[in-house]
Design brief:
This protein is mainly alpha-helical. Helix 4 runs antiparallel to helix 5 and helix 4 runs parallel beside helix 6. The radius of gyration is 20 Å and the shape is flat. It starts with 11 loop residues before the first helix and ends in a 17-residue tail after the last helix.
Length: 168
């Protein structure tokens, strides 16, 4: 959205802000209210589509940070997303951990896996970094498929719905 006529920014921080006007902030608030109330009135099909869209947005934003802001090329993004997803699924489906606890633990687990693959790759760049990220992707996916008794393999896991849990 462009700024309304006659609205100028006075600082670099204001100029770089994503939401600049009260209209933009109010539209964001309305969007967030609708998004968080969506499970109350949407069908399972619509929720599945919105969930897949959200996962895709998170993955793309992570890749944008890595490639766009840091200038590093990564072809292992899907592997790290799979690691986080399977950690969350195993914690909720197999161990009975609450979704709201499993979510940050899955992010932490994917970060630890990223450190395991990232530390040996600190000194490499260019083509070799691309090869290291491809190797990380294939290793993570191979491990997920080999641990089919825990992860469900290629079939995945069915996890309970988060809204059925009581938060205190």
């Amino acid at each position: 959205m462009s700024l309304p006529s006659g609205v100028f920014q006075k600082s670099y921080a204001q100029d770089m802000a994503i939401f600049r006007t009260k209209t933009q902030w109010s539209l964001l608030l309305v969007f967030l209210v609708l998004l968080f109330s969506l499970p109350l009135f949407a069908s399972d099909r619509v929720l599945t589509i919105v969930t897949i869209m959200g996962i895709s947005v998170i993955s793309v934003l992570g890749l944008n940070i890595l490639t766009g802001y840091c200038g590093q090329i990564s072809l292992g993004q899907a592997g790290f997303m799979a690691a986080g997803g399977y950690i969350s699924a195993v914690l909720t489906a197999k161990l009975g951990v609450s979704f709201w606890i499993a979510l940050p633990l899955a992010g932490l687990g994917a970060g630890i896996i990223g450190i395991i693959f990232g530390l040996p790759s600190l000194k490499i760049k260019g083509f070799y970094l691309i090869m290291a990220t491809v190797a990380a992707h294939f290793i993570i996916i191979w491990v997920i498929l080999q641990l089919a008794g825990i992860t469900g393999g290629a079939n995945g896991l069915s996890v309970p719905r988060p809204e059925s849990e009581i938060l205190y």
